[in-house]
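Minutes, methods subgroup
Present: GH (chair), OT, SY

1. OT presented the first of two proteins processed in the latest run. Sequence and structure tokens recorded below as shown on screen.
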Amino acid sequence: MRNFAVTMSYNGAAYHGFQRQDNGITVQQTVEDAIKKLLKSEIGITGCSRTDAGVHANEFVFNMKTDSGIPCDGFLRGMNALLPEDIAILSCREAEPDFHARYSCKGKQYLYRIYTSEVRDVFLRDMALHYPYELNVPLMNEAAAHIIGTHDFAAFCKAESLALVKTTVRTITEAKVVRNGKFTDIYVSGDGFLHNMVRIIAGTLIYISEGKRAAEDIDAALRLKDRERAGKTAPACGLYLNKVYY
């Protein structure tokens, strides 16, 4: 049995997240349907993350077990011919038998993208949060430094998901805000993330730029596990799984 490690990118606007579910079309279902057509076999894929509805991926890794003799370059070409235009296979390699896209992952980097312009760009619909004012990037970076380290991020998790995780402790290795022309990009890297964690971090940093929160509120939210001390949950459209580390 061969174990393929596959990297893809996708525009998540049309999908109900990555993971297969009953109430909508997902990235996993779409990819597995294409694999079935290509390999003439029902094969499940294991993803590195569970992105939510409307969330995108610049780099997403999955693995799959197959007894097919198809070469990796043939798999890449065949899949890209079968997949819709909002999903692309970037690379494929034959991995070690015990490689697991999720459990072998050592960390991820997320990007939250904000388009800061008085007038919205219609071609960025579903691809970035439109915010009609300049953001205070230096102040946001000062606040982002409070997130770095190992903390209990219960205050930065969707409340309904708290009971579904064994621990809310995570280690964040990078949190920075970069102005890139009319875009303000928030990068967050760590060993793992809770449900809506990056979107809440992004919303909190926006609130801090607006003067609705202070950097000290981040410390209090972490210490007290108080969701009210953090900011709003930013919309899904600006979130990208940017890199996956093994």
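2. SY then presented the second protein from the same run.
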Amino acid sequence: MSLHNLDDYVLVEQYIAGDQACIEELITRHKNRVYTYILLIVRNPHLAEDIFQDTFIKVIKSLKMGKYHDKGKFLSWVLRIAHNLIIDHYRKQKLLNTVSNDSGEVDLFNNKKLSESTIEETLVFDQTMEDVRRLVDALPEDQRQVVYLRHYCGLSFKEIADQTGVSINTALGRMRYALINMRKMVREKNMSLALS
């Protein structure tokens, strides 16, 4: 059976049993979500790449040492490791919660669908996405985290609850309050987020 037909749990078990190709499959399968999650938080592609590599080094070491016990929740476990490494990085630099919005060199909201748009539509879209990003950045940390995990990483509320160590109802509540707060900020700033 092909490796990409196996679920994460089976791949982890086979890697621990000595099949090196299984860890490669796991990394290939989840690298985009993990890297995107890191980049959305740190806003610096070079730092994101470093933390991404550190994440999978720690994943490999933890698997070899038998520290993986989240059966069936491999991606959530990896994202939790990445999140902890991000926190560690900012603690070391004493910069936790002071990441600059301008530190990234990559347009996170670039989309190949825009290639058929007019310049004006593209500018409006880019401005709207930048406004949304500012709104998300202005949210309290717990709400911002749920928005990132749900809308940028595509996690389910169950996966978000597992990763953040809260109940599903708490994760749903944080999303609800995030949307309420964002709507309030839109009204207060008299913003228009319509994409026509």
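Chair's summary of item 2: The chain has two domains: 1-106, 107-196.
Next meeting: continue with the remaining queue.
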